[in-house]
Amino acid sequence: MHSALLEILSGITSQPILSVQPVSGGDINDAYKLVTSAGYYFVKTNDRIADPDKMFREEAIALNFISETGTARVPSVLTHGRLHDIGFLVLEWIPPGRAQPHTAKDLGMSLAALHKVTSDQYGWPTDNFIGTLTQRNTANASWSEFYTNQRLVPQFEIACNAGFLPQEQTTTFLKNIEPLLVSENPSLLHGDLWSGNWMADEKGNSYLIDPATYFGDREVDIALTQLFGGFDPDFYRAYHDTYPLDADYERRIPLYQLYYLLVHLNLFGTSYLPGVVNIMNRYR
Is 47 a residue of the active site? Predict the structure, then answer.
């Protein structure tokens, strides 16, 4: 870690820094456990994107917002900032632990409680990020318009410009799915809920991390949990017991998984193209 950044972090924590230990697990940022004489902190840094401070600022806003709802546990935000081309985010250190018998149920109930926080429109006050890609959040009272124009269209544009998909195919697909995009109300979403974006502490309590928060249809979060796996059946039982989903929600799940597959296609390449094409062919 840059020596000048260490000096800044020492001033922020008001404690001498005893050591900096790399933490694995992320593809986008560098992560560290900051050891001071008074305790530990979690620090993320990034010097590879154009505006890392904005990315961390949006993450801090989301974490603080979720915390204020009193629904799901999230790490407390200490600060964020930028040194030259290095952005950084300083969070509470959550001692990692193993999932215990109550952990999956706790996570399901917490997510359901988060989704019960609602708004009168779909969106978020600012654009934020999904991975390193901009996630547009212009507010809209219509879920079908929001999901089409703020989620699928931007990713389709990137994919088409890269030569992954023909433009005419995406245009036809968007017309076909519009009647299917129904929603009960705008729910507060984590926005990027794969298995790597939650953790258990030493007591087995669940924490949400790395949010890409906005108000959207809650089936989107559920769809991503089912896309790559890693969620215990007790998680789904607890969620459904707390906040039951519509009986026909599963018919829309592939449409919401499509967004994340497009993101992966645009970030990581053509290994995700068959999954994208398969979903698009289902809704001809």
Answer: no
